[in-house]
Amino acid sequence: MDSLNLLLDGFAQALTIQNLFYAVLGVFLGTAVGVLPGIGPAMTLALLLPITYSVGPDSALIMFAGIYYGGMYGGSTTSILLNTPGESSSVVTAIEGNKMAKKGRAAQALATAAIGSFVAGTIGTLLLVLFAPSVAGQVVKLGNPSNFALILLALFAVTAVLGTSRLRGFIALFLGLAIGLVGGQTGQARLTFGNPLLADGIDIVVVAVAIFAIGEALWVAAHLRRRPLDIIPVGQPWMSREDWGRSWKPWLRGTAFGFPFGALPAGGAEIPTFLSYVTERKLSKHPEEFGKGAIEGVAGPEAANNASAAGTLVPLLAIGLPTTATAAIMLLAIQSYGIETGPQLFDTEPDLVWALLASLFIGNTLLLLLNLPLAPLWAKLLQIPRPYLYAGILFFASLGAYSVSFQPFDLAILLVIGLLGLAMRRFGLPVLPLIIGVILGPKLEEQLTTSLQISSGDVSTLWSEPVAVIVYAFIALALTAIVVSGLRKPKPEAPLNEKEEVSA
Amino acid sequence: MTPTRRSHRLTATVVLVVTALLLPLSACGVTRGGEGEANRRLSMYIPNSPGGGYDLTGRAAARVLEDADLSGRFEVTNVIGAGGTVAMQRLLNEKGVDDLVMSMGLGVVGATYTNDSRARVSQATPIARLIEDQEALIVPKDSPFKTVQDLVDAWKADPKSVTIGGGSSPGGPDHLFPMQLAKTVGIDPKQVKYIVYDGGGPLTSALLGKKIDVGTSGPSEFEGQLKDGSLRVLAVSGEERLDTVDAPTLTESGIDMTFVNWRGILAPPGISDESRERLVKMFTEMHQTKGWKDAVKRNGWIDSFATGEEFTTFLLEQDKRVETTLKELGLA
């Protein structure tokens, strides 16, 4: 009850005209940078850091939190409409969301994303209010072996989305893992061909934009004169009863995935969106719609990425531990006011913390009010004649890829990987496994090398933590279930060997 | 109006709004008008991403220079890649360009070696050293190491038994510091078990979770944890104690070594003496402003301003020292 009283005080402080103004400004800016691929919330906050010289800590933090949440909303808009994910956390949204848009259900996809984000953000913030002070100390106990096991689980789950042809799915997955190998993260330059611009690896946003947007634009261009253009139907502007019925459970499940992963030091927003997508695909009553525009595949991942943003704030506020780049810059902002972060923050700066928490609720509501009426408007964008639309997408994609690190070289990479995307469409390779490979491969490798470095090469460290053991047991159980069901109705292409390959 | 026309208008509006919102983000590069030196537009390269150390230092300097009317508008560009090597190479390519500077520091010196680049900081024109940061040896609250001596004893007995983590990749300050420390106390740097973490956040997490024994990093990133006692500092690396950290220096603890992580400003090679003098004068005047003193204080930096011969000698000495350390490790 104490927390709730403090929260009410926080609302009183956050609802001043000035703070409300910064909250509105924050969600607008956040939505804008979320929409633009390449410019993420982290970079925006970094560039806005000088604002801490001129406004008070509560206003600045309220605006920064608005940008963070807004970025999560905005990222989904371009994913759905233009097949161009604005952030790596909304890559999965593009898979089903863009298919829905092409069936004339863009408004529904945008609405379920917006409402799902609202639900997840609100529940996440509530969990943050209730648990932040008590659980935060626990998250640091999870070491690299546990993180390794969790990422392995996500990679294992990918086999469920490999598509109809497992062979093609694995080809795509390994292509992705190969792209993820580029760079010198391990201390040795790998596949950089002596080019320092490749030393940091290829940015995931560049890969995602190339594979999705450029690949698709080239594909459409290649067929423009051969096939009559199918007109995108206008469709209903709002979600139907059925849409609501199919969305609410994924929203809640997505929240359950997103929040804990956000709070984990190596969690982030990508892994829970994958897990949410895979879960919805398994649980859906309409599995045949997946890959063709299933609303569950938008609702779940969108809830997951917003809940993870709330989760990120748990260790940040409770023990001053940033788990994402955006959180690290928020921490920098707090410190530039001379405020000590750490467990004592709730005691020394209660006004600030509770005003920030209250403003998260306000920001979430503002984002819903901003995004829901816009959904049908955005959806009309798709009625632009195809050549202009794709010209716009190409422009947008190039701008985004360039703004990742302001290097013209990234545009060359964008084109090369875009051609790969075209080839994949030509030969029917699914794109999701590739993206997952690019994201998870380097993470998996980092956790493995760090685990083994700390243990001086002793492999048994990998199952030295309880969480890791539980995860491995779960993977083993799932494998057994697959093998057993595979034995019951034997298939021509024994899937058993391929599974082992992934978990090895 | 046809639906298509309306959509065109809608798109145009959307593009306009987005552009308008993003303009302040790229806000820079507008000349104030008027002629003369003080209004000349200048460019600054930042060798890492927004929010990083060189970015904070570089942007703070550019802002103070603009606010105090010591220079024209700055166009600040983040040239990201390979720990600063990409920016360094680009600066060297701009031979003779006299309206360009770059913020850099010890990490960039190391990166040019570990990334196998031909670019060397010694090839650029040194302008000024601005600030320095000390490194600290940080341990969890209940670590068996109470003093630096405890650490050194255990370390010498079995170098592999002590796991050290830092927030920078090989060649960066957090990596160079333990390597030079090891050498000073008589341990082969190749025996040092150093784990790379992706910045201060993951490093804090590893220390709090006791996944590593010692962390090496600037102490300012651990303010909160040091204050509440969940982490302790065994020693700081500079010549003098820090006001903010209750810990002895290495020299006081009986280890004859100092180490600082510094940041400064370079200009392209081949610029005229007058141009160099002009830039040195500009940064010297900036150093005396209240705005800069405030920025130094706010960020917890230590003022270590130096120009001319002093900075040139220092830069060459650092370059040599880093090269030696990394060669011994087989990294250069």
From TrEMBL, chain A:
Domain DUF112, chain residue ranges per copy: 20-436
Domain of life, per lineage: Bacteria
Keyword annotations: Membrane, Transmembrane, Transmembrane helix
One Pfam family of this chain: TctA
Transmembrane segments: 20-39, 109-133, 145-163, 170-189, 201-222, 313-334, 354-375, 387-405, 411-441, 462-487
Protein name stated in the entry: Tripartite tricarboxylate transporter permease
Automatic annotation (TrEMBL), chain B:
InterPro entries linked to this entry: BUG, Bug_dom1
Database matches in CDD domains: PBP2_Bug_TTT (cd07012)
Signal sequence annotation: none
Family designation: Belongs to the UPF0065 (bug) family.
PANTHER family per record: TRICARBOXYLATE-BINDING PROTEIN, UPF0065 PROTEIN YFLP
Protein name as annotated: Tripartite tricarboxylate transporter substrate binding protein
UniProt source species: Aeromicrobium endophyticum
